């Protein structure tokens, strides 16, 4: 399998649940990202990992907790979310974390918080 | 405060004609620009990029033009094909800031190419 794979594709969770989003990249890239896409809003960067070290935390609430166990895997742990957190969550990877390194995106997880 | 603006939410063109997608930015320090395309139920895919030291970059049917004085860039697709129907995102970054530079995206524009 190639590219960036995200699971699950769809997730419905209550506000008291704990769930995790998973991302895996098979491109040999050194940087991985979590983005949030809400309706009628630009893509918002949440977290950046470079060689498994978090280099960016874009003022994201603590109810979102990222984990990068190795350069190929990235998780986003979710707990006590709010309905306004419902969105498309996109994982991406790139050769390096620099802004001129094109991102390769997964197909996203459509999250609905009830 | 949106630093990258795609003011037209949608564009419809006839197959075979030119599609021109516009993007404006407010931060004059941006020095690298990218376009991404997104089909429904898929993640965005990288299309073409341009450095601020250039004013044009071409790749097949796709050409990006950069006007730094106007802080404006545009993506030209010619000839347009029905398979080009998608959402197109403009993005900008501050490459000169090094490894911690990040992309700022616009809201996207939906292109529909009519057969």
Write a brief structural summary.
The complex is a heterodimer of chains A (114) and B (115). Chain A has strands at residues 4-7, 10-13, 18-25, 31-37, 44-50, 53-57, 64-70, 73-79, 87-94, 104-105, 109-113. Chain A is mainly β.
Descriptive keywords:
heterodimer, A: 114 residues, mainly beta, 7-stranded mixed beta sheet, 4-stranded antiparallel beta sheet, globular, B: 115 residues, 6-stranded mixed beta sheet, 5-stranded antiparallel beta sheet
What does this structure look like?
- The complex is a heterodimer of chains A (114) and B (115).
- In chain A, 0% of the residues lie in helices and 56% in strands.
- Chain A is mainly β.
- The model of chain A has no long low-confidence stretch (mean pLDDT 91).
- By secondary structure, chain B is mostly beta strands.
- Helices cover 0% and strands 52% of the residues of chain B.
- In chain B, strands 2, 4, 5, 9, 10 and 11 form a six-stranded mixed beta sheet that branches. A five-stranded antiparallel beta sheet of chain B has the order 1-3-8-7-6, with no helix packed on it.
- Chain B starts with a strand and ends with a strand.
- At the A-B interface, strand 5 and strand 10 of A face strand 4, strand 5, strand 9 and strand 10 of B.
């Amino acid at each position: 399998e190639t590219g960036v794979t995200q699971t699950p594709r769809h997730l419905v969770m209550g506000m008291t649940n704990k769930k995790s989003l998973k991302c895996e990249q098979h491109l040999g890239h050194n940087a991985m990202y979590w983005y949030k896409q809400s309706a009628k809003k630009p893509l918002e960067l949440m977290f950046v990992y470079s060689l498994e070290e978090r280099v960016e935390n874009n003022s994201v609430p603590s109810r979102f907790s990222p984990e990068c166990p190795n350069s190929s895997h990235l998780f986003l742990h979710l707990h006590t979310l709010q309905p306004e957190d419902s969105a498309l969550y996109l994982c991406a990877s790139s050769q390096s974390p620099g802004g001129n390194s094109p991102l390769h995106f997964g197909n996203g997880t459509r999250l609905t918080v009830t | 405060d949106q630093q990258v603006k795609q003011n037209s939410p949608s564009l419809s063109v006839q197959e075979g004609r030119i599609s021109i997608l516009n993007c404006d930015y407010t931060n004059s320090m941006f020095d690298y620009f990218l376009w991404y395309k997104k089909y429904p139920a898929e993640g965005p895919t990288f299309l073409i990029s341009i450095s601020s030291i250039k004013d044009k970059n071409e790749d097949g049917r796709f050409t990006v033009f950069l006007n730094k004085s106007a802080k404006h860039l545009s993506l030209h697709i010619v000839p347009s094909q029905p398979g080009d129907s998608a959402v197109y995102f403009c993005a900008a970054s501050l490459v000169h800031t090094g490894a911690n530079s990040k992309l700022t995206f616009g809201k996207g524009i939906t292109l529909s190419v009519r057969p």
